[in-house]
Request: fold
Amino acid sequence: MKSKKIIGMILAGAILLTGCNSGQPANTSVSETESSVTSDTSIVFDDETEATSETTKIEGRYEFNPHIYSKKLGDIIPKEHYEALYNLIDALREGKDTFACSSEAAYKWATDDGTLNNFLPAACMKVSGKSNDGSTPFENGVGRIYLNMSSEEFIKRETQFEKDVEEILNTWLEYDDNEFEKVIKLYDYMETTFTYGDIMPSETGDGSDYYAFQKKMGVCDHIASLYAYLLMQAGVDAMNIGIFEPDMCHAWTYVVVDGKSYHVDATWALKKSLSTNDLYLDYFMMSADRREASGCLLNDITAQILPGFWASKYENLDLKTADNRYDVLRYCTYKGLDEVNKILYYTDANGNPKELSYA
Reply:
C-alpha cells in the first residue's frame, strides 16, 4: 500500500459475483450488475464555528477526526444539530457529563443511536438521551449525557477505537492520496479484512457497527456503513444507503469523488467469502444504470446516516444520479496503481491487461 509502484495482485480466476440480493454473497456469476463536492470538504457554519471532514494530517500521518461531516447532507442536517453532535463527542472524549446544545431537537438527533452509529460507533448503545436518574435530559441550552458504563471505561474504549481507525488509515493510505486512491485502497482494506456473516451485538450491548468493526465481520449494512465511516475519516464524502423492500433488502456505499457520485458495493467482493486473493471491481464505482442492472432498483433509497424519525428529510436527497466513468470495470480485476501518473491497472474478463486514467 505504501509504494508508488504498481501493486501486483495474484490472478486466481475469473469468478464473477451476483449483483444484489437478500442472501449471502455467491461464488458464481450471473448478470452485470451515481451532487457535487470538491476534494476540500470543509464547511464553515458561520464566522465562529467550523466543521470539516478533512482528516488532520500531522507530519504526514492521518489523525482521528472526531468531527466527520458529509457535505452531501449539508443542507439536510441543520447546522445546530452538527454543533450539538460535535459538542457531545468532545464532551465524551473529555469525560464530561453535559454538553452545549441549542435545542431539544438537536439534542435528540445528537444522542440518537442512528446518529452515533454512523458518526461515533463506539458511543452507540453506550450513550442515551433518556434520563436514568430522574434528571431532565435537556434544558436551558444544556444536554445531559447518560452513559451505561463509567466515564473512565468509555474513554478507554473510545481511545482504543480511535487508535484502531488511525492504524487502518495509516497502514492502507498515504497522506497525499487523492480521493480515488483513498476509495480504492479502503475498498481493498474492506475486501481483504472483513468476512460476511451475521453478528450478535446484543451479547455485549454494543452498537452494530462498532461490534462489526471489532469482529471484522458483518452483513451488507455493516460493511457499507463501516466503509463509509472510514472514507469520511479519510476526508471523502460517503454514506451508507440501501433499499429495504420485501423482495430486496440490501445496503451499499454512496461515495463522492472529484465532485461526482458513485455506488460502491463492498459486500460482493469479500476475498474470504470468495476464497481468492483477487480484488474484483464488478461493484466498484458504479453508475446508477449499472447499479440497477445488478438487481438493485434505485427506488425508495434510504440513508442510514439519517435517523428513522427524519423520514421526511429524504424528499430533497438525490441518491440516484451517479457518473458512469468507471462502468468499464465490470467483470474486471484490480492489478495496481501508478500513483504518479494516476493510472489504474486491471485485467478484463478474459485476463487481458488494461489501464484507465483516474486523473
Residues 1-50 have pLDDT under 50 and may be disordered.
